């Protein structure tokens, strides 16, 4: 077949070797031709095959007689497998599995355990291998770690390791169906697959193959999280208007796309640090920095490679510090003004470290992607991670946001810090919470008081936060506005939480974010930010207006006035690194007490969930107008496209919905009968609602 013979060996010369078989090697041997196409293949295309792939059983036996030093790859055969006497060890089993024995016993072992269960392909046998070629995860039992040796096969074509014989047969069959031979596979595998370059927000990022599958890549990149990245960017841009420069941290960089956008568009206003524990991800982050003409700083030293790739006339846009360490360790060692946490899954393991060294009036943004637990699909996981009791409700997305905020608030309070929630977003793939840090035990105490339990009625889905106080109530059902406990049998309500019970949005900060999105041309999130502004004010879009002092420069966008200068920012926030004075803390507390009445009502109602059977509901925009005309605050919500956020009790909500609903066509009845029946029903409901309006409107839902 044109394969050169190896150097003669005394142990091998004494044993008969077939003319067509190559000389055996302890771990690797020269692969013979599998097809005529191999004869014309270049020498570098010919690779070595594993020792478990042989033509005859005698070839396996010869491997036990190989002495150390005759082959370069003798390290693949453990030196423990060789014995000075007539006892030989199995070349395909470790010493712990099969000890050295006589030659006749070794032959039976090779024939029964390896040769009989082999897979044949073009005259070769792929025997089962018990060597530690395939990594197996250890099983931790108590304090002992039992590492199980995994039996596997080595593919002669692509060198893959397959555990089961049936899977190996199917694997080889697929190679044959595709027409893949040894030479064609080697030619394709010698060239590494090129890395794809994606572009997002004028930032180029190089991604690995299978970048959108976390199980198949070290550097995960999800294109569906583009909205999340733009929200974080607008948050940082709004914070950069308050003080400069900002120490920013992307704790889980992966490809580094988020930190690259910060440094490229905000320039000298930010000092970006991108961290990742995986070495491959760190290398990819550095390559992406060079791709975007950004200098990489590692341990306060600039890498020289960034200057070499620049062409004439080009300049570095900014500097990025890339670190490789655990996120908890990094956040304990250094202090930052802005920290973004976006681990794969829950982020509760990193909250304590994030609040340990965050600077005063800094911002912490938390992205949680464990939506199966937050959206009440895995309730036991939510109890384990967040210590929260949760069920599936019509307002489950806002419930998830309040769970994450409560976990963030508890972590901040443990570090003697309070929080101010700037906004919370819960969409299909993630829950994003952005909070501002307020130092001091007073702020921490005020934050801890806003974590409460929720009473939820399982019949009508009415809900209300429990009253403050430590005294045990005789009948907690009295707190609910509904009367389901008296009219329905059994227990009708459950206790959910602990949850964040205060506001989820800061209107002023959202307006500044909207201005930054307009300034940087981020059109994708402008609609979402406007919805958040309307939701924070709990005002319909048609009636939304903001009155600001006339001496401030402002910009109007769809009826929303946005401040464009940072002159008034110094009135609300002090300089970087300084604590608040007692007078400022007192004024801030008074301001918070006066703004309680203007906070948006908690939770929302789904209009389809409370629709009346046999009646056609009004359009959502018209229904919002009807609720507003009845004297209630009302707005749409980003949590649910058919959700209505209002301070109206559920009884009033259903009454107004029934009043403006029209009956569907019933074939056997005349229109006059249907109309009269519906008018009588509406009259009864309206009279009931008028009698209960004074009591229901007086119920505080906080």
From TrEMBL:
One of its GO terms (biological process) is tRNA N2-guanine methylation. Its main location: nucleus. GO terms for molecular function: tRNA (guanine) methyltransferase activity; tRNA binding; zinc ion binding. Pfam families: TRM. Residues 1-47 are annotated as: Disordered. Keywords: Isopeptide bond, Metal-binding, Methyltransferase, Nucleus, Phosphoprotein, RNA-binding, S-adenosyl-L-methionine, Transferase, tRNA processing, tRNA-binding, Ubl conjugation, Zinc, Zinc-finger. Transmembrane segments: none annotated. It catalyses: guanosine(27) in tRNA(Tyr) + 2 S-adenosyl-L-methionine = N(2)-dimethylguanosine(27) in tRNA(Tyr) + 2 S-adenosyl-L-homocysteine + 2 H(+). The keyword Zinc-finger applies. Residues 153-180 form the C2H2-type domain. GO terms for cellular component: nucleolus. Residues 8-18, 26-42 have a biased composition (Low complexity). SUPFAM superfamilies: S-adenosyl-L-methionine-dependent methyltransferases. It is found in: Nucleus, Nucleolus. Specifically dimethylates a single guanine residue at position 27 of tRNA(Tyr) using S-adenosyl-L-methionine as donor of the methyl groups. Dimethylation at position 27 of tRNA(Tyr) is required for efficient translation of tyrosine codons. Also required to maintain 3-(3-amino-3-carboxypropyl)uridine (acp3U) in the D-loop of several cytoplasmic tRNAs. Belongs to the class I-like SAM-binding methyltransferase superfamily. Trm1 family. This is tRNA (guanine(27)-N(2))-dimethyltransferase. It comes from Macaca mulatta (Rhesus macaque). The gene is C1orf25.
